[in-house]
Write a structure and sequence with these properties.
Chain lengths: 113, 113
Amino acid sequence: ELKVEQNPLFLSMQEGKNYTIYCNYSTTSDRLYWYRQDPGKSLESLFVLLSNGAVKQEGRLMASLDTKARLSTLHITAAVHDLSATYFCALEDGGTSYGKLTFGQGTILTVHP
Amino acid sequence: NAGVTQTPKFQVLKTGQSMTLQCAQDMNHEYMSWYRQDPGMGLRLIHYSVGAGITDQGEVPNGYNVSRSTTEDFPLRLLSAAPSQTSVYFCASSPGIYNSPLHFGNGTRLTVT
């Protein structure tokens, strides 16, 4: 059974600070996703990571994947209030199992002035 | 394009009632899925479809039925609602392309009293 664990589950940051969210998973997988969710809203795709060593960056967010360690990280640089949201990592079963995701519990990020 | 459309947005049911959550996508995606979101548990897969006429169970299928008579529609039926089914339900679709994320609908918030 594929398990995905995120930590921390709650993260309170000051604006301007850096921090990392960790996503550990239990079995090998082809594809790892990061999503953002604002309160009461749907999920917005941030990154798709497909191979070992993959690194993607968008603005103040950078995601990486280490398939050997079964670990993905989402690094936040110089946080701003607009980044306050819940962040999920999710793994897809692999092969042709498109859309069958196993999600982490989510990390609730709050950025304070 | 409308993307993935879910109706209704909100619903209150009494225990034992039945209802259908509607999901439609206009992107010609073969893969569709239903998830439920509960606090602290991330999203969990309920049912899944790889194309018209083909469905499969996810992690938490009990109490839910699905069918896929067309590519566009993937309704989720609650046969006899229970308070444990109080949740936010998301429908999602995927084009089945290796590096493409899931597209999520806006969700249905269901309360069972």
